[in-house]
Amino acid sequence: MGGWTASHAKRVLAGWLLLMIALGGIVAATGMNLATTYKVTGTESMEGLAVMAKRLPQAAGASEQVLFSTGGDIEGQRAAIESFIGKARKIEGVSTVTDPFAQQTRTVSRDGHHALILVQTDSSVGEAAGEPGPKAKAVSKELTQLASATQKSSPDLTVQRGANIGNSTSIGMSATELLGLVIAAIVLIVTLGSVVAAGAPLLTAATGVAIGMLGMLVAANFIDINSSTPVLAVMIGLAVGIDYALFIISRAREYLAEGVKPKEAAARANATAGSAVLFAGGTVIVALCGLAVARIPFLTVMGLSAAAMVAVAVLVAVTAVPALLGLLGGRLAPAKRKARKSRARGWVHFVTRVPALTFLGVVAIIGFLAVPLDQVRLALPTNGNEPVGTVQRDTYDAISRAYGQGYNSPIVVVADIKKSGNPLVQVTETAGAIGKLDGVDKVSLATPSPDGSFAFIQIIPKKGQADPATTKLVKEIRDAAPGLEKRFGLENVMVTGHTAVAIDIAAKLSSAILPFGIVVIGLSIVLLLIVFRSVAIPIIASLGYLLSLAAGMGAVGAVFEWGWAADLLNVSKVGAVISFLPVIVMGVLFGLAMDYQVFLVSRMREVWLRTGHAKLAVREGFESSAKVVTAAAVIMIGVFAAFIPHGMPAVKPIALALTVGVAVDAFLVRMTLIPAVMAMLGRKAWWIPRWLDRILPSIDVEGETGPDAQAREGQDAQRPEGGDSESAPTVASGANGRSAGD
């Protein structure tokens, strides 16, 4: 493939360009149809929303709160507020506007300075799950105009909208994310020593990301893709795209330095480094597809979308990169430099001199970084997580100050009413019983449906959505449901509403962490067994991955719960982070950790197979790959870090966890801990039972059967014995007939 694409470079590059233009044309015609909410199936809250949409469509649309504030007595602004209510009720699609002065729905604050109303739309404006309907923007525009007119007519009155109705979606990226590309460019120039060579990985990575993003937006016309998904996919695709191109170009430059012609260098680089890229990308793709284990639709789509982005990055790397190599020719050849002592050689000698001490030091450092791990709290984002200064955040904070956090997190209880003489009494008495539960601030609304067959009760908890007390309250209501049904003649009592949906999603995601973790670790062990024909290396690699994961999650706990560096990182609100953070970070970090493991240890295995000298294999293998892996890690860290300062609230903690996780994994685990442990184990690091070696499939990760195989075979015939007080390995049957010692 590398040879063909290098020989037909213009055709290959033109093909990718035409695909990008075609996808761009489709997106321009259809627009961005991204979802605004997170949905799960099989939960009581989602079932309750579906039932409510059928039985009480007046309450099945989107809703938002409108806060009226004044420096004096709010009663003095009653006429202006009632005028707003009257006009809002006439907006097409608005089904209910509560009266803050009425006894049943009174919401005047204790200090008398505020009044709070709820604007509820029917299902024609928005679905129960929160997806905006076609009328949503029109309703939102009319409410904004009405709020502005009310403030002008009453200068002492401030009107603040929650802005949930008609909330538009966007990809949520800013120019700050381009900083990652600047960092990548600097690292590439330093590493490759050439502006032309540095530009090639950036060009191919940008091509892959553009095609992946446009393809995702096209797919959003047919399936629900959340607005957070493209940002995550771009972050991952950009990082791996640059790294994969770097690996292939670096190997090609080695061949060019030896005098190999450009097209042949491209072919050989694809056969060796390209094969490793294919395998490494495959591990990332499988890990991201593994998010389907959670059986949560939006998370599955998120994983598949990111996996598709990585797949495009791999395809671009093994086609467009060789094409550029063939097109640019000798201009990518490295300049001749004077030989000087390798820093990588000094580092690997240092960490393997007293490997036990290195091991203890690394574990101690990572253990310290992981201390805040148990502080991480999970929840779905609310308007309180939006950046300060936005309409949603300002209104959220104002309501919290005036009334308490619970007013931003109402809970809905619905039920079927058995035939009785007075459904209003049934609903009122049920609401009274629920209102006595600990954690309930007040019952804000209790009413039967117009036909008297369905109960709708809205309660205000004392705490916010992400607070454990609110989760406990939802559980208590559900536990009390059988008693309520028996006592008040109800059926099918369900707790629902957006707060309950968020709590249910968080619970379901938390329950998915363990099975997903088992899948990831199991996959890691199996893949590395196949690649390295070793029992010890997969176990060491997997334990190292867990250490990196703990460090990344610990950083999230320190910043988002303890508040360390929160202002510096522009964290809009300290507290709970997005519910799907653990599984996303687990999947992405696993794939990237296996990348570094493959690129470092496969070079060590080459030396081991050639020499049978375990410590020499660690040192030479490390030295030959450390520079490129270091550059790749720095690029990855830079790309992820660029998404922290101004990233979406849902993406920011994920970017932080991946930034710290990749830094720890690359520099502390793969380039420090792994060499030290392998030095401690010696030839035992490469041991595998003969029976296991025979049944494992052979995967040619570094092109061992490619152009360089004959040269290595000649060297193998004269393989030195021992060299570090070790005997040469007994060669077992395996990949290419040369596996690890038995």
What is this entry, summarized?
The protein has 742 residues and is of the alpha+beta class.
Q: Could you explain how this protein is built, in words?
A:
The chain is an alpha+beta fold. It has 4 domains: 1-35 and 171-336, Multidrug efflux transporter AcrB transmembrane fold, CATH 1.20.1640.10; 44-161, 2-Layer Sandwich (Alpha-Beta Plaits); 350-393 and 510-742, Multidrug efflux transporter AcrB transmembrane domain (Multidrug efflux transporter AcrB transmembrane fold); 411-496, Alpha-Beta Plaits (2-Layer Sandwich), CATH 3.30.70. It is 59% helix and 8% strand. The chain has helices at residues 2-7, 9-30, 44-55, 78-89, 136-153, 178-192, 195-219, 228-257, 262-289, 297-328, 343-353, 355-369, 391-403, 423-435, 468-488, 498-532, 536-560, 581-611, 614-641, 652-681, 690-695, 709-717, and strands at residues 63-70, 94-97, 114-121, 157-161, 378-379, 411-417, 440-448, 454-461, 490-496, 577-578. A 4-stranded antiparallel β-sheet has the order 2-3-1-4, sandwiched between helices.
Write the layout of secondary structure elements.
Elements: H1 2-7, H2 9-30, H3 44-55, E1 63-70, H4 78-89, E2 94-97, E3 114-121, H5 136-153, E4 157-161, H6 178-192, H7 195-219, H8 228-257, H9 262-289, H10 297-328, H11 343-353, H12 355-369, E5 378-379, H13 391-403, E6 411-417, H14 423-435, E7 440-448, E8 454-461, H15 468-488, E9 490-496, H16 498-532, H17 536-560, E10 577-578, H18 581-611, H19 614-641, H20 652-681, H21 690-695, H22 709-717
Parallel strand pairs: 5-10
Antiparallel strand pairs: 1-3, 1-4, 2-3, 6-8, 6-9, 7-8
